[in-house]
Amino acid sequence: MALDSKVPQGPLKDKWTEYKNHINLVNPANKRHIDVIVVGTGLAGGSASATLAELGYNVKSFAYQDSPRRAHSIAAQGGINAAKNYQGDGDSTYRLFYDTVKGGDYRSREANVYRLAEVSANIIDQCVAQGVPFARDYGGLLDNRSFGGVLVSRTFYAKGQTGQQLLLGAYSAMNRQIARGKIEMFNRHEMLDVVIVDGKARGIIARNLVTGEIERHSAHAVVIASGGYGNVYFLSTNAMGSNVTAAWKIHKKGAYFANPCYTQIHPTCIPRSGDYQSKLTLMSESLRNDGRIWVPKHLKDVEAIKAGTLKPTQLKEEDRDYYLERRYPAFGNLVPRDVASRAAKERCDAGYGVNATGEAVYLDFASSFVRYGTEQAKIHGIVNATDAKIKELGQEIVKAKYGNLFQMYEKIVDENPYETPMMIYPAVHYTMGGVWVDYNLMTTIPGCYAIGEANFSDHGANRLGASALMQGLADGYFVLPYTIGDYLADDIRTGKISTDTPEFEAAEKEVADRIKFFINNKGTHSVDYYHKKLGKIMWDKCGMSRNAAGLKEAIHEISELRTDFWKNVNVPGDDHEYNEQLAKAGRVADFLELGELFAKDALVREESAGGHFREESAEIDGPQEGEAKRDDENFAFVSAWEYKGEPKDAVLHKEQLEFNDIELKQRSYK
């Protein structure tokens, strides 16, 4: 199959407008006769379900959680980008577009990214109308802060719980449609296969996670909004239930999987404390607005801190290495995530890590306390304020901006971050790769769409902070409702899709057989045993840096691990009850296949780009020494993998990327 991105002709700034002017529409009376399935209820799935139902379609919405409001979008902290230029600091639609393409290391599709930037401003208006309590400045206007990889302030936020507030907005819109009967909500249901009838996606097979019942659900189109695959690493900032299953099932039925090796390591996470952990905790990138990242300059001080004979607060300024400010003076602590993560790893690998494992750097707010405190003392007319008073006043400002994050850190680490610097270290966070989609957000399966983090379309090789929420809501509120209508216009006479067909029967049998296998296979190892082993392979050999030898080893080791999994996995309990181990077994089986394709994709891409850092492709000398080195002549393409059985047999299709409005050049944040 030839890859057709279906990008409209014409100037970049006119593509979306012209597209909307000429698409087919479904009139309101006909929408009542069309069903749409949406899998996932995060920001992308929740906003899509609510909007499609508001338009008049009959929506079936599926969530494996007990409520849509528990979707992992709730964990997002720092904010959402939009090109409104409220600060008057030079922002624009074009600058958001440019920053996003550059931040993604020039590995994203121009047309999709420009559309994202174009609709971003509408998202804020939509969410304010829903009652999302964005932070406001002293005059009552919406406030903004800056995030990594940009030189403007365009990030709207609600303290450190932006994702939660935005999800509540989408959830309230969903609830209105549930009450009207336009959304049929299926909580505690997991999609386990997609059903293809006459070449089109016409439904799914889902399992009721409470009763174990396998169900058939039909529709005229299927939308996958199930998030990313970061949990292939076992340890990540994702919720423990986050998985790749819905995306992987459609991949195995014909949807190409794009750029699986593009995963994001977030630089601002609480370091792991031991092998017993099952997940990691994110500390918002917004903290890098006011926190300065450093390690001791001298190894003797590192050893003293580890031994407990020296406190970080006792170290003089001249003995601290603010390495991001030193290496990247133009952007400082607000370099993009991939750059900040590799820089932290480099310092820790050199022996400057400050915790017991040697995998931590400091995020210090002391200078912000002084800066804000001095300003507040002047505002309140406090003359000759003591250092203690200035610190107190400054801490109150920081508390107002990030209080819940500081509280969360203290509860987890048992240290007061107001009195001693936070410790952070990079961790797996987001996946830029995902299901390949065209400009319409349709996969290579007609009638099957992928939105939000489940698709690959907007972030290239590295996502800029605060862009995930922007993409999820853009896709759900403002893009998919147009593009899916163009497709569904051909279905106004189709009528209800029957589930009593050979295609549904075959798909249900395949799902049932797999479940029976897990229940009947009396192996010797738990599901987590295999998940942890996979995660270690992925982190060691497909993590923050990769090389050809390690990737070849990873492919071999994952293949062997998968063989052992199918022989020796043990799933306790029954399939006619709530059985989390059974659900997890299916998810880990999919991760084992994805992991091998991930390593294969990383091996093929013999360049460094964004979050994909090949050790063989780094700048050797000059001002960019040690930085990622792209190869635009050979790798300016999207890797789109076609399923052919075993991951080793997957077929690579290339979507060549064209850059007509942005000059291709090596990134520099110095």
Write the layout of secondary structure elements.
Layout: H1 15-22, H2 28-31, E1 35-39, H3 43-55, E2 58-62, E3 80-81, H4 93-103, H5 110-130, E4 155-156, H6 162-180, E5 183-186, E6 189-197, E7 200-208, E8 214-218, E9 221-224, H7 245-252, E10 257-258, E11 263-269, E12 292-296, H8 299-307, E13 320-321, H9 323-327, H10 337-352, E14 361-364, H11 366-379, H12 387-413, E15 422-431, E16 434-435, E17 448-450, H13 468-488, H14 502-520, H15 527-542, H16 548-568, H17 580-604, H18 632-635, E18 637-642, E19 651-656
Parallel strand pairs: 1-2, 1-9, 2-5, 9-17
Antiparallel strand pairs: 3-4, 6-7, 7-8, 10-16, 10-18, 11-15, 12-13, 12-14, 14-15, 18-19
Helix pairs in contact: 3-6, 3-13, 4-5, 5-13, 11-12, 15-16, 15-17, 16-17
Report on the structure:
Among the domains are: 162 residues, Succinate dehydrogenase/fumarate reductase flavoprotein, catalytic domain (Flavocytochrome C3, Chain A, domain 1), CATH 3.90.700.10; 115 residues, Methane Monooxygenase Hydroxylase, Chain G, domain 1 (Up-down Bundle). The protein is 39% helix and 14% strand. The protein has 18 helices and 19 strands. β6 and β7 form a beta hairpin.
